[in-house]
Specification:
Blueprint: E1 2-5, H1 13-22, H2 25-32, H3 35-46, E2 58-62, E3 68-76, H4 82-92, H5 95-111, E4 119-127, H6 136-151, E5 155-161, H7 165-173, E6 177-186, E7 189-199
Parallel strand pairs: 4-5
Antiparallel strand pairs: 1-2, 2-3, 3-4, 5-7, 6-7
Helix pairs in contact: 1-3, 2-5, 4-5
Length: about 200
């Protein structure tokens, strides 16, 4: 297996978009109803310019056939500003999808870790469902931590859904520690996130 920066010419952008969808299926399904529609929207941002899902922030785990088995989205330092994000969203999507994705960005803003200039942020780590249980997540996370160290960041920061104990165990195994918990609920909807960091 290889860990490398996503290449729009060699790797499937739609597959990457599907894996990003897998990282937050409930939220994407709430706004876009299903995986295919969500992945179509996400792919537009993957291929676009400045935004948090831009291809320049994406790394992939691939097999010998160049198939994308897992994905990591990494930001060094602070994320793009909300207004830069909005500009990219409205430039690359129709009006309805733009408004829906803006709502997702606002929700994310409530839960995401606060970052400092010398942090690197693992926004997404996802493994293809049919390849889980083979150590791919550990392989990608190990490479992410090395990449962040090589960048000279002081902390690796990530967020994990409270209802995802498998991911929590993986991050704890690598030494990430919870430094904050955020929970929001209204009506019958509830979401909780643990903010985690690894000091480097």
């Amino acid at each position: 297996m290889q860990f490398e920066q996503f290449d729009t010419q060699r790797h499937s952008s739609f597959k990457v978009a599907e894996l990003i969808y897998e990282a937050d299926t409930d939220t994407f399904d709430f706004f876009y109803r299903n995986k295919e529609k969500s992945a179509q929207v996400i792919e537009k941002l993957v291929l676009a310019d400045v935004n948090t899902l831009n291809h320049q922030h994406i790394y992939v785990g691939t097999d010998e056939k160049n198939r994308v088995l897992g994905v990591a989205v990494i930001h060094h330092g602070t994320r793009p500003s909300f207004f830069e994000e909005l500009k990219s969203i409205f430039k690359n999507m129709n009006l309805v999808d733009s408004f829906k994705y803006t709502m997702i960005s606002i929700l994310d803003g409530i839960f995401l870790s606060d970052l400092e200039d010398q942090d690197s942020y693992l926004a997404i780590l996802a493994v293809d469902e049919s390849f889980r249980g083979r150590g791919i997540g550990s392989f990608i996370l190990e490479n992410v931590v090395e990449l962040i160290k090589d960048h000279g960041s002081k902390r690796a920061v990530l967020d994990v859904d409270i209802d995802n104990p498998d991911a929590l165990r993986l991050y704890e195994k690598f030494g990430f520690k919870v430094f904050n918990k955020k929970i929001l609920s209204f009506g019958g909807w509830k979401k909780g996130v643990l903010n985690m960091a690894l000091n480097l």
